[in-house]
Automatic annotation (TrEMBL):
Residues 46-149, 191-301, 324-414 form the Cytochrome c domain. The lineage of its organism: Bacteria, Pseudomonadati, Pseudomonadota, Gammaproteobacteria, Lysobacterales. Its cofactor is heme c. Heme c 1 binds at C60, C63, H64. This is C-type cytochrome. Heme c 2 binds at C206, C209, H210.
């Protein structure tokens, strides 16, 4: 199920309550490497420019800007399996934003996940990743945020179900799942690899979406970047390994860079939440940083075939039913899809993405192609492609059976070998609200 975490709510409560004792013991052991700089020291133009770049690299604007609101003024609703969190105002407004925050206050939030008043922050704010950001980079980000126009915008309080509304339970969660500490370079790797690891693991917080989570919303140990459902959004963030069984199998370094920079590559196109990341953040990164990220991603450990994105966990259908669906899907594809994606599924280079050999189409979880057919595919607007092509939504035109048929067809045509999709699965994903 899409929100399977909720099945384990009772287990989660028991685990967290048990862990409070551990949390009390470890909370006092967290190292606060603040430098005692509690004032608002003047920042140089170079530091501010660097901070602007880093804030963009972290895609801070995406979460800290509400629909129709002022940039960085916060109060955007973040749905989670445990309730709703509202994001903070990052502008230097004294009453509702960071106006009275010192650089040390900001560092503690980023590095330790603690607010200015010492309260524990909910990990919807990805401090488990941001803790890896170096102090100098955090100071640069702070310097840039202080140059923004102050916006008076008070953040709504969290709307969490019991017992998750009891903030003190975070002590237990942190004892189990949070390790504070800046990124430590691997001396056996190149400077480029370490730069990529720093960006992917820390500032880019890629694991926030691309790592599966457990019943308590924590990233599963030992499964970093192996792909997972994005909580409450109904999209699947694919496995990022580039070996034979990974989600980036067959992708070159340049293919990865092209996707991050422009939203398009010869291997696929960014849609859904990833399109927003490219549009707001990744397109602005230096080519050297994008190549560093690609080098790091291509070095991720090999997966076992049974753990890979190619392993099927889709609903098993009777052979006769699956055959009929695929046959129906072939007709629908020829009628509605082949003009752009071509009869051979190869698409048109840098215009319409290929479906043949597409790792997202072949993934174990078929939610992304299902959602793309239902909602349409909208590429990011980038400097390279300021007027991108888009795919129209078919939710009103195609029934659940028709969507299941065409997605089943593209998952089995042209050498693809993924499991077919059932109409009931399409109906489940059709009902997910769009956030």
């Amino acid at each position: 199920m899409i929100v399977r975490w909720k099945r384990y709510a009772a287990l989660g409560m028991a685990l967290v309550l048990t862990a409070v004792v551990l949390g009390a013991a470890t909370a006092s052991g967290e190292k606060d490497s603040s430098h005692g700089r509690t004032g608002h020291e003047a920042a140089s133009a170079v530091q501010i420019a660097r901070g602007k770049y880093l804030v963009r690299a972290g895609d801070c604007i995406a979460c800290h800007t509400a629909p129709g609101g002022q940039p960085f003024a916060g109060n955007r609703m973040i749905p989670t399996p445990f309730g709703v969190i509202y994001t903070a105002n990052l502008t230097p407004d004294k009453a509702t934003g960071l106006g009275d925050w010192s650089v040390d206050d900001f560092w503690r939030a980023m590095h330790l996940g603690r607010g200015r008043d010492g309260r524990l922050l909910y990990p919807a704010f990805p401090y488990p990743s941001y803790t890896k950001i170096r102090r100098a980079d955090v100071e640069a980000m702070y310097a840039y945020l202080r140059t923004l126009k102050p916006v008076h915008s008070r953040t709504n309080p969290p709307e969490l179900s019991f017992p998750y509304s009891w903030r003190r339970l975070l002590l237990g969660w942190r004892a189990l799942y949070f390790d504070a500490g800046e990124y430590v370079a691997n001396p056996k790797r190149t400077a480029q690899w370490n730069r990529g690891a720093y960006l992917v693991q820390g500032l880019g917080h890629c694991s926030a979406c691309h790592t599966p989570r457990n019943a308590l919303g924590a990233r599963k140990s030992g499964q970093a970047l192996r792909g997972g459902m994005i909580p409450e959004q109904g999209w699947y963030a694919p496995d990022l390994a580039a070996d034979a069984h990974g989600g980036l199998a067959g992708w070159s370094e340049q293919d990865i860079v092209d996707l991050l920079k422009t939203g398009r590559s010869r291997k696929g196109t960014a849609y859904g939440p990833m399109a927003e990341v490219v549009q707001n953040s990744l397109q602005y990164l230096r080519n050297s940083d994008l190549h560093a990220m690609a080098v790091y991603l291509r070095s991720l450990p090999s997966r076992r075939a049974e753990d890979s994105a190619m392993s099927s966990d889709a609903e098993q259908l009777p052979a006769k039913t699956a055959t009929a669906l695929v046959a129906r899907g072939r007709v629908i594809y020829r009628r509605d899809c082949s003009a752009c994606h071509q009869k051979d599924g190869r698409g048109v280079a840098n215009v319409y993405p290929p479906l043949a050999g597409n790792s997202v189409v072949r993934a174990a979880n078929p939610v992304n192609p299902v959602r793309a057919v239902l909602l349409g595919g909208f590429e990011p607007t980038t400097a390279m492609y300021p007027r991108p092509y888009s795919m129209p939504p078919y939710a009103q035109r195609l029934s659940d059976r028709d969507v299941a048929a065409v997605v089943s067809y593209i998952r089995q045509a042209w050498g693809n070998a993924a499991a077919p999709v059932s109409p009931s699965m399409v109906g489940e994903y059709r009902s997910i609200p769009i956030h």
